[in-house]
Amino acid sequence: MTAVPEVSATINDLLAQQQLLMHSITRALDNFKKLGRNNYTAAKVRARIASSKEVWTQCVRVHSALLQVIPEAKRSTFDYFQSELFDQAEDIHLTTLDYMAEYLEALAPTPPPLTANQAPGAACSHGPPASSFSLAHLPPINIPPFSGKYEDWETFRDRFTSLIINNPELSAFARMHFLSSSLAGRALESIRSIPVTADNFELAWKALESRYENKRRLVEMHVSALYNLPSVSRESASELSKLRDKANRAITSLKNLDRSESDILSDMLMYSVTQRLDPATRKAWKLKGGDDARIPTFSELDRFLDSRARALEELHPAN
Q1: Same structural domain for residues 254 and 301?
Q2: Whose CB among 123, 139, 250, 313 lies 3.0–4.6 Å from 181's, allowing a Cys bridge?
Q3: Do 202 and 254 belong together in one domain?
């Protein structure tokens, strides 16, 4: 029988508060649909979107508080972390916002977005910036928006660093303006609570790096690309070139993550085995790694599988 962790009053209060907030997030879409399409107005939809964002902001704050009061080593003993309830709530929240945004667009189409060399204050929704830098004088730098997909993170990071962060002509506020204008979806949600000011650029950029600079996740993504290369079904120079380019692109990305050829072989073996695990065992393996950014070795996976097989054999001898 699993021991029940000791939970302080503070943690209990935070978990109870988070449960209420996540319930509100879960019910938001159903409550919106109950209004009925004939009763939707732009004002009502905007109000629901604003309300949903406010609840989500509170949810993020409580989640941050839980991360502070519960040591990393003990988080796996709480269902809140083990079941990844915060991530589930985030998915529901973003789905709700997307649904509402579609109706808002139909009721009140938004004008084309202003570019950096247009009217001042184009991307600042938090009031006048605490900076004397005029947005009207920003150079017209176009960066494809980053929506939060891990496969797009490295390209966005390198491009933004080269064009914006390393540009000596840009002030901190200008960098913050470009950052907020270059994000969408989950990526934008991750910094939405941070006001667009010069002082907050470093904070916002570090928040993005903390979320998406996940070496373990990136390695797995590139190895997955190798395993899912398209088959060449006929003799074709162009098809062979495409296959070679995609394979080399994935290998180069892995090497940029400091993976040697022997590391890559180990990573591929790890991926091949873990993809064949049952869902419960795969989840247990991922939870074992926790927030550790270090890339596990096949030897570690082998020991884990041996230990789990022995435990399951003791629990269910017939299996």
Answers
A1: yes
A2: 123
A3: no
- Tell me the helices (H) and strands (E) count for the chain, helix number first: 13, 0
DSSP secondary structure, 229-267, as one string: PPP--S--HHHHHHHHHHHHHHHHHHHHTT--HHHHHHH
Is 113 domain-assigned? no
User: Do residues 10 and 64 share a domain?
Assistant: yes
Q: Which tokens is 31 given?
A: 């409550």
DSSP 67-89: HHHS-GGGGGGSHHHHTTHHHHH
153-191 burial, b for 16+ CB within 10 Å, e for fewer? bbebbeebeebbeeeeebeebbbbbbbbbbbeebbbbbb
The total domain count for the chain is 3
Query: Three-state DSSP class for 110?
Result: coil
Q: Name every residue whose Cβ is closer than 8 Å to that of residue 221 and which is 6 or more positions away in sequence.
A: 150, 151
List pLDDT tens digits, range 206-256: 989 888 888 888 888 888 888 888 888 888 888 888 888 888 888 888 888
